[in-house]
């Protein structure tokens, strides 16, 4: 039996669970290339190679996941696993999609805090920063192409950039405002139609699944609060990244904007340069890029370890962060997916999602500016004029070695069309060479 919607006519084929398990292990180990590459790989394996779903059913599943906050490629794998083998299949697919990358990020985070100061390690991260700047710019370009030419969308893009750059408006408020503007001002899509009537029993299933998976999501946070107190770093990490998980429309790069605002500028858990290092780590391993959150949680707990040792606290911080980052995805799929198809062609929802997409382009452009200033100039200040705060920097503080590596990275990516992983490998090697020769 599968968990497929009984009203659908294009059911997946019957698949032995052992065969599916082998495929999900393969997917977890090979899921490089960001969300776009991971979705393409899932399509190749599930639709073209295995023929477990047809094109229409795969696109339906993808449409479900693009409407949800969080890592859409991991949610797509979870949803396909759910279609094939119910909750057992969804858990297997979703967990295996994340686990290999999470273990790699944990190992690299441990290396990061124990081996910094060695020229080779410092050089690797120095070179990766240049690649990260290119990656973020590429994300802006790709997202911008998806937005469309409507004046309202262009205004939302520009307004989002200036709202966060000049007025430090919190990212969640930008998302809400963009959704409202998109819903009210954008014309309805051609395929807009009244939502379908929900199948009998769906509301009871929604309530039950929400309670169960909500408890799963919040259990480690509640345990940390009970044993260590509400002010402990593990509790604070759990609450913060749980909030982050429900507004991560637009992928990991949009999420980094709120991380930059909160984890760097407000909480002081990590520095801007460490954020760039974390994104570089997240891009070099399989699995979702959003695993950069695990790196931030690791460092935050490492620096406030009581009553644990720093490394034990850091591992616990990484585990809590990863848990609350991905547990909501299972709630959204198991509890909410049956309703998403009913809403997919709703006019207001379609407009809201377009508005959010436009806002995400603006905030990712801000992220590129923010990363660039901190990587090239180190300390970045601000000039206040009423409610406006303009970023400032000292031109004489330019790190010419970082700037030179960034120029090389842009040439390799945009002129020579070097792929993501080769780009990171080349820049890491160049970073080591710079540190060993020039210091």
UniProtKB/TrEMBL annotation:
Pfam families: Chromate_transp (PF02417)
Classification via InterPro entries: Chr_Tranpt_l_chain, Chromate_transpt
Residue ranges of the TM segments: 23-47, 91-112, 124-141, 161-186, 206-228, 240-260, 311-335, 356-377, 397-414, 421-438
Membrane topology: Multi-pass membrane protein
Subcellular compartments: Cell membrane
Record keyword Cell membrane present: yes
Keyword terms: Cell membrane, Membrane, Transmembrane, Transmembrane helix
GO MF entries: chromate transmembrane transporter activity
Keyword Transmembrane helix in annotation: yes
Main location: membrane
GO cellular component labels: plasma membrane
Domain of life, source organism: Bacteria
PANTHER family in alphabetical order: CHROMATE ION TRANSPORTER (EUROFUNG)
UniProt family annotation: Belongs to the chromate ion transporter (CHR) (TC 2.A.51) family.
NCBIfam families named among the record's database cross-references: 2A51
Protein name, UniProt field: Chromate transporter
